[in-house]
Amino acid sequence: MLAGPTAVGKGSVSAAIRKRHPEVWISVSVTTRPPRPGEVDGVHYGFVDDRRFDELVERDELLEWAVVHQTARYGTPRVPVDEAVAEGRLALLEIDLQGARQVRESMPDALFVFLAPPSWEELVRRLVGRGTESDEQRVRRLETAVREMAAEPEFDVTVVNTAVHAAAEELVGLMGGSLRAASSRSGPTEPKPAEPPPTE
């Protein structure tokens, strides 16, 4: 489970993992916001209208969902996640703070990773630099980011996104370790060796 403040680079880290680690299954969230330049429907997000999103909520087809930045809704389709987990695959959910809290309730054994910026100044620079939001939207996102940064202690581990590829590799390593630990806890135990017969 990967979450962090707006503009920290969650999408970039996920894209690096998708490119370099095909063994990792990455959940594709659905959202009611319009695609940004370069985003592909079904790859970066599933772009849906409000009516379709309402249907997903009513049918309980979302593992989690939330209104983000007081504008668009985001959610994680439930069935693909359940299937990936059942197959024992490395599965990555890139979600927001509200979604992470919901998933914590239903999947408490999952590894929750907080993606942090090197500094607050760098986070602001990244948000302004990408140029995809209006001034009003940037102000709203930075207000949200303050609350998101304060939630870091809720997570199991923090990865600092100083360089995208390094952060991606660190995250994959953490995921692999978590999966191996879970398998060792739930797997069959080794039988104890038979005790030798008593001597006369």
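The above is record 1. Record 2 follows with the same two-line structure.
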Amino acid sequence: MGANQALPIVLGYVPIGIAYGILAQKAGISPANTLLMSVIVFAGSSQLIAVGLFAAGVPPLSIILTTFVVNLRHMLMSAAVAPYLKCWRKVELAAFAYELTDESFAVHSARFVSYGPNRAEVFTTNIIAQAAWVLGTWLGIMVGGLIRDPKPLALDYALPAMFIALLVILFKDRVQIAVALLTGILAMGLLLAGVNQWNVILATIVGATLGVGIEKWIKKSSS
């Protein structure tokens, strides 16, 4: 069952991992460091951002701080699934947190609400997902030398495209669609206003709060 749940993630991770591997090679990052980042960091958006900053010659400390801020959204995701994992041991929680990504969160959060967490299924999904990401990275390194200019291929759009697909799958009613649209608009508005590092996190907090408030109001009105 865990393998079945991982299949949609694998279909997205392999091509995106290839894109990351190609872009990392073009940025001058060694194959070993490119692979190590996929093994140790394992965060698609942060890895792609780090590659872009590295290619632009940004100082290492700025790259670390930027990717740290981008990954702060993992605190929100962890808080969302934490109530379902109260009975898990600390070692299991650490292993789960290590492989928690936006895509695995989308799969697990939907599964936890309906069936609760099954350790074997959860870790099978996570391990297969990361293996697919590392495989995609390796393939990108292998073909990176064959591509002179990756810009016409629009490889940097692969990750947002997968996020959009996962978001559409999770939609259950018009309220969720409306909240998602408002959150996206708010994130873009904050970005245009100059909030270029915290815009997604702030918009997510506002959107999640709004969504919870609307759902409680609907339940209260129907009761």
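The radius of gyration is 18 Å.
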